[in-house]
Design goal:
By secondary structure, this protein is mainly alpha-helical. It is built from 9 helices and 2 strands, in the order H-H-H-H-H-H-E-E-H-H-H.
């Protein structure tokens, strides 16, 4: 009888001990990640010290060319490869038909359905504009004209918007004349918006074609 009493008493103690190790933490006194709120939108990281997260894998383009390319694409079409605007400009970078022909593309539908061809066309146009504007880039890059700091990437972006000829006129008038596209977007705004990116790897080439890149 005594042995049975010891057996059941020991079994009870062991059961109580083991079960205590699996009790959930008290969320009210230990808010580690999710705070108990009705909308479930209040979160805390395990640490609130900014320096603890310096190695997180968060995309950062800085002034690299990929940042320039994606910024222009988003401004032109919200990065939509099949975008066609009210004036008939098409694709992620909003090319006109004549501009497409200048980089060797004659099939509109093939262009709209090929992200790779659109990216190559953008590179080809940058190369052509860099050749056409090489004197302006050499002369004005790093200077300030009418309160605007001039950079190569800003010049190339402005040429994408209004053509190399409009950019040349901008410099001819010392930035005092505001050249705009059909929607009212100015050359100056593109120079400012897209200034400071690294476009140095673009090789100036008047004969650049999309299918050769």
């Amino acid at each position: 009888m005594i042995k049975k009493w010891y057996f059941y008493s020991s079994l009870t103690v062991i059961t109580v001990f083991l079960s205590s190790g699996f009790r959930p933490a008290n969320l009210e006194t230990n808010p580690w990640f999710l705070i108990n709120e009705e909308d479930g939108t209040h979160y805390l990281y395990p640490s609130q010290e900014v320096e603890e997260y310096t190695n997180l894998s968060i995309p950062f383009t800085g002034n690299f060319f990929v940042g320039f390319r994606e910024a222009v694409g988003f401004r032109e079409s919200e990065s939509k490869y099949k975008k066609i605007n009210s004036l008939g400009y098409i694709g992620k970078y909003q090319f006109g038909i004549e501009t497409l022909k200048s980089v060797g593309i004659y099939d509109r539908n093939a262009f709209l359905n090929s992200p790779e061809l659109q990216e190559n066309a953008f590179l080809a146009l940058l190369a052509k504009n860099k050749w056409e504007l090489k004197k302006e880039i050499e002369k004005y890059e790093g200077t300030v004209i009418n309160g605007l700091r001039i950079t190569e990437s800003g010049i190339l972006a402005a040429a994408h918007l209004g053509g190399a000829g409009s950019v040349k006129k901008f410099f001819r008038y010392k930035g005092k004349r505001n050249f705009t596209d059909a929607y009212g977007t100015s050359i100056r705004s593109y120079m400012k918006m897209f200034g400071g990116y690294d476009t140095s790897f673009i090789v100036a080439d008047i004969n650049a074609k999309a299918k050769n890149i």
